[in-house]
Amino acid sequence: MAEKILVTGGAGYIGSHTSVVLQEAGYEVLIIDNLSNARAEVIDRIAEITGKKPDFTQLDLCNSEDLHAFFDRHPDIAGAIHFAAHKSVNESSRFPLKYYHNNLAGTINLLQAMERANCHNLVFSSSCTVYGQPDQLPVSEEAPLKKAFSPYGNTKRMCEEIIRDQAEANSLQAIALRYFNPIGAHESARIGELPLGVPNNLVPYLTQTAAGKRESLKVFGQDYSTHDGTGIRDYIHVTDLAEAHLKAIKRLLKKENKASAEVFNLGTGTGYSVMDIIRTFEKVTGVRVKHEITDRRAGDIEKVWADPGKANQELGWKARFGLDDMLRSAWKWEQSLKE
Ligand code: UD1
Fold first, then answer.
1. Is the CB of 181 inside a 6 Å radius of any atom of ligand 1?
2. 296 lines ligand 1 (CB under 6 A)
3. CA of 202 to the centre of ligand 1 (A)
4. I need a labelling partner for 203 at 20 to 30 A (CA). Which of 1, 84, 179, 239 fits?
5. How many angstroms separate the CA atoms of 64 and 105, rounded?
6. Any idea where the domains of the chain sit in the sequence?
7. Residue 152 annotated as catalytic
């Protein structure tokens, strides 16, 4: 019998790619998602790619009664991967309580339901935002956590702490994965990132500009202390991220974890500037991206890239895809949205 893995937020960007990888590895995937920022048809797309439809329940983690009932109906879930959360940095600054309520209550309710159901393995979707602007680069898991620039970032740090406390006090075994900047899409271009409205993040804005949906890409600041003055990030292919989640849940199921609460950075270890991204996109697609330099965006850090050594050695995971692949797949996905 295939082991059952619960994926919260499994209809979303990283959740859907992870569900594909889990099904391909032989796990039975149960998705819960409230569809607040995702479409139900993503479930059919996962079925199209893998040949198997995941079990889908529309459910809000803030509703603990529904969640308990869900675990009662599925008493044999081996582990959970928790993506479900609000994720807009910008919106979180305007509506902090919406973020604190949804992201914290959702996580606490999930932990309570798991404890009640004797489900002890959890992989949590965290972010490099917990490091703020690190004093040393590349940034390793040892770096001190800093006050986040946004309520969204704060919820990631706070959830990590709640999970760690629960793991210390109970039988929970948890891995928090700190993603750097996820971009790109599944090679089939049947699933990808679907930002609602005007995108906040660089790559969706760039591909929409290239597709003629946006007038011009704004490059936020050219006066940073970097090789070309624009901000540097560690971009990582969403398929690489998905594979890291598979490794993490397997580590817990096989009891190979070295502590009840572990953290791993997920990045390539290489930083690229905004101008590097634009030029590489133009090189691999042959499509020009109209862009203009504007002021810095409030809250942005100058540069960050990962030391992924711990994930490489202990999880046995290494990013396979380079920037060309990431941007090519992002463009293929953008083009598929026109059809
Ligand atoms: C943000 C969040 C991060 C989250 C990620 C993906 C922070 C500090 N970072 O990362 O936690 O995981 O989004 O949701 O909270 N840029 C432009 N023009 C644009 C958009 C972006 O020049 O139109 C630049 C930014 O200034 C930055 C880089 O592109 O240098 C990447 O920005 P973005 O894609 O928004 O991601 P982050 O802000 O790094």
1. yes
2. no
3. 6
4. 84
5. 9
6. 4-183+236-266
7. yes
Convert the pLDDT of each residue in 98-143 to its tens digit. 999 999 999 999 999 999 999 999 999 999 999 988 999 999 999 9
> Which atom of ligand 1 is closest in space to residue 231's alpha carbon?
30
CA–CA dist 17, 35 (Å, integer): 16
How many of the other CB atoms lie within 10 Å of CB of 142?
Answer: 9
From 227, 300, 327, the mutation candidate for ligand 1 (largest count of ligand atoms within 8 A of CB) is 300
Give the span between the Cα atoms of 8 and 60, in whole angstroms: 9
Token pair, residue 126, equals 């965290």
Among 3.40.50.720, 1.10.357.10, 3.60.21.10, 3.40.50.1450, what is the CATH number of 4-183+236-266?
3.40.50.720
User: E strand or H helix at 19, and its extent?
Assistant: helix 13-24
89 touches ligand 1 (CB under 6 Å): yes
User: Which residue spans within 180-225 are E strands per DSSP?
Assistant: 181-183, 217-220
Find out whether 167 and 107 touch, Cβ atoms under 8 Å. Answer: no
pLDDT digits (tens, 9 = 90+) for 152-209: 999 999 999 999 999 999 999 999 999 999 999 999 999 999 988 899 999 999 999 9
Q: Is 231 in the pocket of ligand 1 (CB under 6 A)?
A: yes
Residues contacting residue 10 through CB under 8 Å, at least 6 positions apart: 16, 18, 19, 29, 31, 32, 33, 54, 56, 83
The finding on whether 37 has its CB within 6 A of some atom of ligand 1 is no
Residue nearest ligand 1's atom 5 by CA: 181
Q: Which two tokens stand for residue 238?
A: 């969403």
The CA distance from 330 to 192, in Å, is 8
Phi, psi for 225 (deg, rounded to 5): -85, 75
Instruction: Name the residue with the closest Cα to ligand 1, atom 11.
Output: 129
